Amino acid sequence: MGSVQAPMADHRVFAALYDRMCAPAEHAGLADRRRRLLARAEGDVLEIGGGTGANLPHYPSAGVERVVVVEPDGAMRRRLLGRVASAPVPVEVHETGIDDAPFPDRSFDTVVSTLVLCTVPDPGRALARIRALLKPGGRLLFLEHVGGVGIKLRLQHLVSPMWQRLLGGCHPDRDLVGAIRSAGFTIAECDRFDLPKVSRLARGAAQGVAYPKAAA
What we know:
The chain is an alpha/beta fold. Helices cover 34% and strands 25% of the residues.
């Protein structure tokens, strides 16, 4: 759950605990979901909010030219940098968020967003920037928290302010699949599932592939 918008404060305690907190979920299937999602990456790849670098080991060496990671949280970024040398693909890390990323439009074949859109102040703005940065025919690969329905969603709304403070800005109650559609993407694949080994209030997730709609 790295962050995507700069400027921001470093979450030192959260970053120090993040890998340990996520280890049960990674071992129970999340790592395999990352691997299967990132098998779809190709060409020049932009990963937004790279966090501590959990995705880096899973990029396929065939088909990926390079991975550019943006991560504005310095505490997260320091841990991410420690994983760059062992990555199977060339990786460069930028101290910036997606809104301020210094890249021309249509720079990337693939954009990767995993457990990060839940943290941004304005998902619509971040997704608009992602769409602009994709080349024609490019794709967004996403694996994100999603809000629940009914009583669960009401509980998520209730706990969200405290949740954000404790967990690096994470909003557990966002309809991020809807946000992706609203930002001008066609969702070609979407698998809704429960994240393993996490709180019941944050288990809902969606994994898939989206393409920018052609301009009218």
